[in-house]
Amino acid sequence: MAVLKKKITNRIRILRALVVVLLAIYALNLFSMQILRKQLFTSEAERISLQSTRIPAPRGEIYDRTGRVVLAGNIEAYSVYITPSELPATKRESVILLLSKLLNISAEDIESKLPTGRLTSYGRVAVAKNASLSAISEIAAHIDEFPGVSWTSQPLRDYADLRSLSNTIGYVGSITRDEYKLFYNKGYTLEDLTGKAGIELIYEDLLKGKDGWIAKAVDVHGKDISRNKARIEAPEPGKRLILSIDSNIQKIAEDALGKRQGSVVVLKPATGEILAMATYPYYDSRVFMSDNAGQEYLKLLNDPQKPMLNRAYQSSYPPASTFKTVLSTAILEEGFISPDKTIYCSGEINYGGRSWSCWIKKPGHGAVDLKNALAQSCDIYYWTVGRDYIGVENIVSYAQDYGYGKLTGIDLPGENPGLLPTPTWKEEKYNDSWTPGDTMNLSIGQGYMLASPLQVANMMAMIVNGGVIYKPHVLKEIRDPGTGALINEVQPEVLQKSSISEKTFETMRSLLRGVIVYGTARAPISTKAVQIAGKTGTGEIGLKDRWHSWFASFGPYDAPAKDQIVVVTMIEASNPWEWWGPYAANVIYQAIYAGQDAKTAAATVGVKLDGIAVGGRRE
């Protein structure tokens, strides 16, 4: 009995010892948690209950070349969001209908913005980017009727009255689901705006900026329980972009073009800078900042006049007689025919079973050499020389030297490369062989040949520069958004370098001056403010009462290349025929070099900006 009692006593002692040890362990652990590791657990608790709110970064501003004219800036605006996970299915339809009436946007438009996948159902989706203060006040006053709805004030893109410059600047829009998949790893959210066209699209990475954050500890009701101040990471605005566009020259070009379907390019040949790029018709970038942006986009997309098309570089046309510059260069450089040899023009020739009429019919131009053939734009001279002396291979070679059939690489999206047809191309495209008639058409820039106004401007730039084309560009500088300090300046980049002799280019400049002094452009180019040189062109499209009207030029003729500009005007045949191309250029040169606006310049040179009667002249 004593032995049994002793055993029980020992067991009790062991049990007591275990209890003491366990209590000691728990005490030590509590001491560690509450004293030694208090800060760690406090931080962890704060992290778990931390509420982070994004502070959208202002998009980088865009200025003209002076750095003083804002083309695209920012304003504060209210954005309305829906968080799908917080919107009960039973109230989805009613909430969408209420928002539709309040924000003046269609219910279908709101519905289309809401994601359906699980991956994005917990994120906020922007349903309105520019809501009024009254709309926000109404939502706030009846918040119980709007579960899952929230709003913020954030920078919204603000465009100046850009007119046709909208087609160069572009616009921004809500990020799409497909874009979100691509941009997710770059830190984009479904609330972001992203560049959709023009400069806004091409330089998205520079303009985007870096979002900031404000973080604070909250309870389950969202009440701030932080003992310390909220942690704030300030947003970094996007870079400030300075364009090469001269706002004054841009307005002159637009006014000279008027409401005529076509385009104007003003290029600085010594650097490749685009000083102006006018196109008509055009769209207004500001319509994409409205809550009906989707509907506006569809209207523009379905407009038969294609206002979203920048005709200066996204369209191509038969370059017509401006292309005679290429054949003239080949003649001077390689002597396929003596420049002094004359070819007789009676107004028409017969070849291949058809009659080929020069732009001036009987009695024609008479006997013309190269100098007079280019000045008078004699088709029969170039048909004959192209077919019988130069040949298609050499024509193509010299055209390639000038950059035809190739992208210029301009820093804008959707460039049209044009078309430089070859015998191989025709065989592959139409399963048909090249004919001498095709060579004749190519010799005057017709037939299958297509070029953009920007490519024609590059041709003139090569002549001015004596054999070099610099890559055309619209961006001039990148600057710090806060200080304005220069970060990077775009340097001239050689796009094309020719082996053609400087003597040939010097002679070409003289011949193109002759077009103005005693040739086809003598009447329309009347400005006394500056001497210019250039080439007219009329592109046939199969109609008897209208043609494309071209004028490719440069000036001041007697100035160094670094002080010259290239102006190319292109008026489509969709307009009533008035041969406006050279007249528009006349106004542009007069305005720039006389320090006038387009209206005053037009009055000075004796034309009306709303149209002139010139008797349907062709050349």
TrEMBL record:
Q: Which SUPFAM superfamilies match?
A: beta-lactamase/transpeptidase-like, Penicillin binding protein dimerisation domain
Q: Which UniProt keywords apply?
A: Carboxypeptidase, Cell inner membrane, Cell membrane, Cell shape, Cell wall biogenesis/degradation, Glycosyltransferase, Hydrolase, Membrane, Peptidoglycan synthesis, Protease, Transferase, Transmembrane, Transmembrane helix
Q: What is its main location?
A: membrane
EC number, UniProt record: 2.4.1.129
Give membrane topology per the record: Single-pass membrane protein
Instruction: From the UniProt record, give one GO term of the biological process aspect.
Output: peptidoglycan biosynthetic process
Q: Where in the cell is it found?
A: Cell membrane; Membrane
- Which top-level group of life is the source organism from? Bacteria
**Gene Ontology CC terms:** plasma membrane
Q: Where is the Penicillin-binding protein dimerisation domain?
A: 55-226
Limits of the Penicillin-binding protein transpeptidase domain: 262-588
Fetch the NCBIfam families from UniProt: pbp2_mrdA
Q: Which PANTHER family did the record assign?
A: PEPTIDOGLYCAN D,D-TRANSPEPTIDASE, PEPTIDOGLYCAN D,D-TRANSPEPTIDASE MRDA
Q: What is the name attached to this protein's record? A: Penicillin-binding protein 2
Show the taxonomic lineage.
Answer: Bacteria, Pseudomonadati, Spirochaetota, Spirochaetia, Spirochaetales
